[in-house]
Description:
This protein is mainly α. The chain has helices at 7-17, 19-34, 38-51, 55-62, 66-73, 81-95. The mean pLDDT is 90.
Amino acid sequence: MPLSISYKDTIKARVERDPEFRAALFDEAIGAFLEGDTAVGKALLRDLVNSTIGFERLAEGLDKSSKSIHRMLAPSGNPRMENLFQVIHAITKNEGISFKLTSSYTKGNQRVPA
């Protein structure tokens, strides 16, 4: 009989024991947002919150309800930019994560018409 461990439990265990994995998960979330894949970005942030600070503690720190934070990061959630960045800031502060954004231009890239 195969052993079955849930995805959430696997991620939570890895996040708890591996700070580099936490940072990589955060990096993937930010990258997903910047590439326009908000569903993946929210899912990864949700995994991070569940595995680290928790929704209750995050909500207290942001002076919001836990339910509001859950809705924000839900698949159908549409958080305001201010709220999303508050969540991101709280995660970086709680986990000791810092990140640097670097922009570059690649010749031959086409601009999207306005």
